[in-house]
From TrEMBL:
InterPro entries: LRR_dom_sf. This is Uncharacterized protein.
Amino acid sequence: MQRSGQLHGLKVLDLSRTNIECLPGSVSNLEGLTSLLLKYCQTLSSVPSLKKLRALKRKGKHTTLS
């Protein structure tokens, strides 16, 4: 994630079922991101502000941030 400029066109980021502990702040630079999947990330303890991710979609109980 350190080079998020190279991921400018990224629409979906699926980190589900990974051992990620902290979502880096640079994820907020992915302004075209429509889906951020974090299902079953049991070690995830920190998520930065996602206010800049205006394209991010949420749908009912199946939110993209579940």
